[in-house]
Amino acid sequence: MARLRRLIALFGLVLTSCLAWAQSPPLVFGVLNQQSPQLTAERWNPVLQYLGEVTGLSFQLKMGSNVFETNAMMGRGEFDLVFTNHNFQKEFDGVYKVIARLGNKPVNGVIAVPEDSPIKSLQELNGKRVAYPSAEAFLAYAVPKVALAEAGVKETEVFAGNQEGAMAQVVAGLADAVAVNSRSLEQYAERRNVRFRNLYVSEPYFDLAVIAHPRLPKAKVRAIQHALVNMAHDPKGAAILAKSQFPGFAAATERDYDNVRRIYRKMGK
Question: Measured between alpha carbons, how far is 105 from 206 in angstroms, rounded to an integer?
Answer without folding.
Answer: 7
